[in-house]
Amino acid sequence: MTAPDPAPRPQKIPVAVLGPTGYTGLELLEILARHPSMRIELLGSARTPSPRIDAEFPRLIGRLGPGVNAECEPIDHDAIARRCRLAFLCLPHEAAMEHTPPLLSRGVKVVDLSAAYRLRDAGVYEKAYGHHHTDPANLPRAVYGLAELARESLRGAELCANPGCYPTVAALALVPLLKAGLIKPAGIIINAASGVSGAGRQPKPNLHFPEANESYSAYGIGAHRHQPEIGQSLRVYSGRADVPDPLFVPHLLPVERGILETIYAEPAAAAVTTETLQAALQAAYAGEPFVVVRDEAPTLRDAQRTNTAHINARVVHGRVVIIGAEDNLVKGASGQAVQCANLMLGLDETAGLM
Questions:
Q1: Rounded to two decimals, what is the model's pTM?
Q2: So what's the pLDDT on residue 5?
Q3: Most-buried pick from 63, 92, 201, 331 (CB within 10 A)?
Q4: What is the pLDDT of residues 291-343, one digit of tens each?
């Protein structure tokens, strides 16, 4: 008696990665290369001549998956539509606005890792980013891709605006406490520190090793682009229109990757305790695969190279102090993008990320 033929393996979903030569592109390719249900079909770049991704990042040699062409192709919307169901855009904001409409019109789902579709008001975007928004028509169509707060909206969505790295930690830490009425909406202060990879791959004087090493500096004080995004997220997902933009002060850490945020808020009542804060966070994230509520303050190392955010809240001398940590390239960028794509494509949300 002959053994039955083995069941055929399910076909992996073909995806494109446009603009893969930055740090988020590298992180995304490494995740997709091991993804059980997606495969890299093409890499697209506007650079001339087209780069080879394994020359840009030799660590990718032989690791992209069988049959993957390591040479980037010119961005061709028709070719992407013929070959791919979803495209990840690791492009500058202006380029993302250029390529998203033709991809959507051809039936290609888009996960945009830029800030092009994060802010719902084009005027707020233009003030924060200093240039004209060329695709306001698609702003209402974009789902803000913080899965823990917008999971059902992401299922089957066509366009995902992947959140910024700093806003991800801030929203995860603050939204449950605002919804529960445990902290006052005004007077929130966010002191955040990120590794140098958060500034991108382009060389800049302040990121030069002799400048950044063994140093620690604040930047973008009161004017950072992520401040209006944080305020928008807090208002939308807490359901409270009375939440003003918090005071957000980012800092540069002399490390490769990771974000640690120390957040200060006023308790809404004298009865608020460490126990009530922690209970609200635990109730909000019970069963969540990528958020851990800690009994102690997390460290940067706890979150590095994972798609998991770590959060702890406590009352100290009558103030609420919340500590949140994540990897800016994974949960703050490419890992979160894959988490959202999984939901958009009807896959297991954790696929490729555990």
A1: 0.94
A2: 56
A3: 331
A4: 999 999 999 999 999 999 999 999 999 999 999 999 999 999 999 999 999 99
Token representation of residue 114: 């830029």
What pLDDT score was predicted for residue 6?
57
Q: Which sign, positive or negative, has the C-alpha torsion 15, 135, 45, 92?
A: negative
Neighbours of 242 (CB within 10 A): 10
Dihedral in degrees, nearest 10, Cα atoms 216, 146, 353, 100? -100
165 is catalytic: yes
> Is domain 166-329 in CATH 3.30.360.10, yes or no?
yes
User: Where does 280-318 show beta strands of DSSP type E?
Assistant: 291-293, 309-316
Inter-helix orientation angle 147-154/165-179, to 10°: 90
Instruction: Say which of 72, 84, 160, 165 is annotated catalytic.
Output: 165
Q: Where are the domains of the chain?
A: 13-141, 166-329
Residue ranges of the chain whose pLDDT lies below 70? 1-10
Cβ proximity of 108 and 86 under 8 Å: yes
Closest alpha carbon to 80 in 15, 10, 129: 15
Confirm if 21 and 53 have CB atoms less than 8 A apart.
yes
CA distance 179 to 234: 9
Q: In one letter, which amino acid is 126?
A: E
